[in-house]
Amino acid sequence: MKRLVFESWLLLLYVDRIMRWRRFRALHRIVRETPVKPGIPTRLVPHENLSRAMDCACVLYFKRVLCLQRSSATTILLRRHGWSAEMVIGAQLLPFKSHAWCEVRGAIVNDKPYLYDIYTVLERC
């Protein structure tokens, strides 16, 4: 588990640097183009363990981790471990709020399951 938390923490740092020095378009392209690593389904690390490792890494990160950074890093982490994950960006009109989360096979894995009741999906990558 320590290795997964460390890998998650490094991904948070990587995404943080992209968000700081480049535009959203670059982050979107990186997440969209990150391939799913082929793996044997019985040897995959459970996506719950990967999400838990990312949660721990967020607690240990040196600054507040926002949903876009967390969801981008979680999507990349899951894909590196063989899961076909998608980052989803949604918005609520009144009052205006936006949010990002990660899904595996249409199920939200790093946030509350009722997000579809609050947000309209704008983008999937």
Account of the protein in words:
With 125 residues, the protein is an alpha+beta fold. It has one domain. The protein is 46% helix and 18% strand. It is built from four helices and four strands. Helix 1 packs across helix 3, helix 1 crosses helix 4 and helix 3 crosses helix 4. The longest helix has 20 residues. The mean pLDDT is 93.
Strand order in the sheet with the most strands: 3-2-1-4
- Provide the domain count: 1
What is the average per-residue confidence, as pLDDT, rounded to a whole number?
93
Could you give the order of the helices and strands?
HHHHEEEE
Residue share in β-strands: 15-25%
Distance between the termini: 27 Å
Please state the overall shape, judged from the principal axes of the Cα atoms. globular
